[in-house]
Amino acid sequence: MRILIVSDSHGEEKLLHRIVEREGADHVIHCGDFCTDRDRLPRTSLTVVRGNCDWEPVPEEEYWDGGKWRFLVVHGHLHQVKTSLLPVRYRAEELGARIACFGHSHYPLCEQLGDVLLINPGSITQPRGFAHPTFAVLETESESRVRVSYFTPDGAAVPERGGIFDWKPAP
Asked: Which Gene3D superfamilies does the entry mention (predicted)?
């Protein structure tokens, strides 16, 4: 399974649509601050949450079951992700999620804390503390392994981010 993870597109609908079309993912996760009308988001298999700059009535927190993998999706502003990753990790554990996707800081990171893989795809429009705008692609390689890769909006690989992560998925 191939999952596209984006965040903080801040109204750049055309760019978001180009990325979604080019990547051809099985599912798209948008971690908020899309800053457009909900009906202008790509029409695809999509999980989306509201960020601190959004006005549309979408949930502030969602979970998505992708096969044997449960994902927690939040924007991050309500979980203090600019200060610590522990609140979002603990929330993922409460929900039985093995992967937590969030945005808000505009800084790409991929880190495993305990049994939870934390993914911030960065921002496709306004990077902070990182040289490039970014998004992430998660690919399941087996029932116990995922690969996370980062790219710039034009599709260039960002090899200094991502990696391969192993553990047993929740039953």
From this structure: 3.60.21.10
